[in-house]
Amino acid sequence: MQRYLIVIVCVLSVIMGAGFMTQGAGETLVDDSASQRVATQAGGGHAAPTKAPRTTSPTSPTASPTTTTSAPQTTPAPSTTSSPSSTAAPTTSTPAETTTGAPPRTDGYFTTRAVGSYSALPTGTQCAQTITRSSWEPRPENTAQNHTMPDAQAVHASFAERPRGSSYDFRWDQWLLPRVDGQFTGTTDEIIQWAACKWGISDNLLRAQAVRESTWYQGLHFSDGQCYWNRGCGDAFGSATAASTTYCTAVGRAGHDYQRDTNSTVGAYPYTPTTGLCPKTFSIIGVMAWDDPAWQAPGTPYLDNQNGTFPFARDSTAFALDYEASFLRGCYEGWIGWLGPAGDMDGCVGAWYSGDWHTTAADGYIARVQGELTNHTWLTANFADGKGNQYKCDAVKGCPQ
Known about the structure:
Layout: E1 70-71, H1 124-128, H2 143-146, H3 152-160, H4 170-179, E2 185-186, H5 188-199, H6 203-214, E3 233-234, H7 242-252, E4 281-282, E5 287-288, H8 293-296, H9 312-315, H10 317-332, H11 345-354, H12 360-375, H13 386-389
Antiparallel strand pairs: 1-2, 3-4, 4-5
Helix pairs in contact: 4-10, 5-10, 6-12, 10-11, 11-12
């Protein structure tokens, strides 16, 4: 299971039956929570997919109206000398003046830019000044992660230690990943807009994917640190192995050891926590942190069997969406060797989920996302009513936060 990314600017029209990401076309997506992810942008230098198909499918959420408000920032040049930090450094920024408290327009604000337009994409700073601001926030539980920006040098160092290599176009390592930095804070929808603007992706497409992935929860968790499955974490290992133990142990050094959790009665892990078992994916958009050593064979496995996105994707909503949108842009440009030709956004959306091109699993995910797009789930009456609709409280652990 793994994940990918990409996104940028324009006005979106939702057209049923049309593909997810063609310039000027509308998109419709359904919710596929984190438990269905594939390994995101992990593989480098080898033909094996960077994402492995997920073993579980996410739950569909009830949607509610959304508003856009957040300000992006420019991404600093990648650093190859600094070592990645284990946690994202929280940074609070003052959002631009709020002009409305309304949810986003049904047709969104940005459309997917054409293949080849990557060189003309706006910067994060420019997008911060372009998005439509609003105080509308259906997921107040995301507040801490929405106002956390990772150390950009640590992000770039983490990617530099894990180059994608020859399975990707050279621009993936030299241009695309160095542009990912998560340097923006705002409301959940403002961050979605920012990522879409920055990478030239439809903002409605990102909204629909986030519904499928997590019902817009960046990292719902109980007070003891256990994450609420499919609400910001997911994708279980079939069994503990030496490789999964290396991965989970490293994950556990960054703020919380998921191997030591005790299971809840709601939002529970689909396994009994133990050594070598922990979530593979994190965030509102299901970013895969795990990288199977087999995906790098016969080359050297990535450090800690991670693809460089953790803990940034868990701790920062902006980083997670920045990364996923970047994957969509790079895939749409045709820069992933084992996937299909450029210009098929549907294929890229499916690859984010399955790691492969228009397989049964990929096409199923595409259809579910398309359904969320058609329904505008994030604007439905029950979407913002998280407690009871999107999550439940545990008799012992209380309500997640």
